[in-house]
Design brief:
220 residues; alpha/beta; TIM Barrel; two-stranded parallel ribbon; 9 strands; globular
Length: 220
């Protein structure tokens, strides 16, 4: 199953990062993004409160139950307990902003996809050595596609995804630089639009990202 999920992530090239969205609105949001061509959704943990953690787990459960066509993962996973609870709730991949060997190894022990965050060549290589399937370059947008390309030069064997400051305008450039995918948060999953029920606009933004990446496929 994990190989199927990894293949899906590689084929789709884009993960929608959902942060701070109420579980009561998660299905409508997911459906809006699916209409736009996105099926990979990362629900992030809110580390600030127990309630936030439970809300994250509730959202993951709802997506697995009501949106079986969505490939759902958990984000901002900081410890082994969160790995276990996220996977129990239905997460197929585990994403973190950092490299924690215990988090990576527990994710792999449970048969799921591990995507820890790193920035330097040392961190990227360490994440891979711990067992990461893909390494999240974060924050990628600040340093740009040129930085990712430079990191990839000696580390071509390590799949990288770019996260942080990814826009419709620059997403294809990161793929051309060597990334296997991108993660998009606030530029796509606007809390303002969600709270006002403007899901058609989210669909339109999702389509714009998908078309930008599809254009990159055609260029190659």
């Amino acid at each position: 199953m994990s190989l199927d999920v990894l293949n899906t992530l590689m084929e789709q090239k884009i993960i929608a990062i959902v942060r701070g969205v109420e579980s009561t609105k998660i299905v409508d949001l997911a459906n809006a993004m699916v209409k736009g061509g996105m099926i990979c959704i990362e629900v992030t943990f809110d580390q600030s409160s127990v309630e936030g953690t439970e809300e994250t787990l509730a959202s993951i459960r709802q997506l697995r139950q009501e949106c079986p066509h969505v490939c759902v993962g958990a984000g901002t996973v900081m410890n082994v307990e969160q790995v276990r609870r996220a996977i129990e709730a239905g997460a197929e991949y585990i994403i973190s902003p950092n490299v924690d060997e215990n988090v990576v190894r527990e994710t792999k022990r449970l048969g799921k996809i591990s995507i820890p965050g790193a920035l330097t060549a040392t961190e990227v290589a360490y994440a891979h050595a711990c067992g990461a399937d893909i390494v999240k370059m974060f924050p990628a947008g600040i340093l740009g596609p040129g930085y990712l390309k430079a990191i990839k030069a000696p580390l071509q064997h390590i799949p990288l995804t770019a996260v942080g400051g990814i826009t419709v305008e620059n997403c294809a450039a990161f793929i051309k630089a060597g990334a296997v995918g991108v993660g998009v948060g606030g530029n796509l999953v606007s809390l303002h639009l969600i709270n006002e029920g403007r899901f058609d606009e989210i669909t339109a933004i999702a389509k714009a990202y998908v078309e930008a990446l599809r254009g990159d496929d055609e260029d190659n």
